Amino acid sequence: QQLRHSILTAFPQDSIVGEEYPPQENCDRKVTWYLDPIDGTTNFINQHQNYAISMGCWEGADPLFGLVLDVERETLYWAKHGDGAWQNQTQIHTSGRRELAELLLTTPGLQYTFLESHPYQKQMIQLSRKVRGVRCLGSVALELCEVAAGRADLFVTMRSSPWDHNAARIILEEAGGAIFTVDGGELPLDQKSTVLALNDIELKNRILCV
Length: 210
Prior knowledge:
Low-confidence stretches: none
Number of domains: 2
Mean pLDDT: 95
């Protein structure tokens, strides 16, 4: 409520989309904020770490800027379209690793990605056997930022909402990465979807062929 009030007080003409409240019905609003005040709720409750505040601002289908705050570490990931990506005051870039055996894969939910039945389960299990390792942080926004900062190389999730990834996707792309649905399609801006993120678009075909 505090974040929504502050945004709409400063920018009353804008729209906010988030998990806690439905979007405004005024379709004429050109600028939309995708807001998740706690990305990683289970971590917030159980670990008291590894959760983030995520805000992504878009004008129609054009990205403006993204902010992801790792609250407990007091680390801000941010990017303005066309100006690169940053971790606090240090510019970040995706890793240069390209061989499957060198890649670190991260996913926010091991059970949803590998254990529960879904159309891509077999491919995900095969991928997990080819990469160097798999890690699970439990926050879509923070895990995308891990790829952006070069500490991970791939990210995949079977379910994500616009407010989960629309800030971090700006940061990732400004850092040199690429993002799609898990079948390689365009990631929708305003719908729930699967997500596949890569440290470089060069990896796309190799990952999809696994």
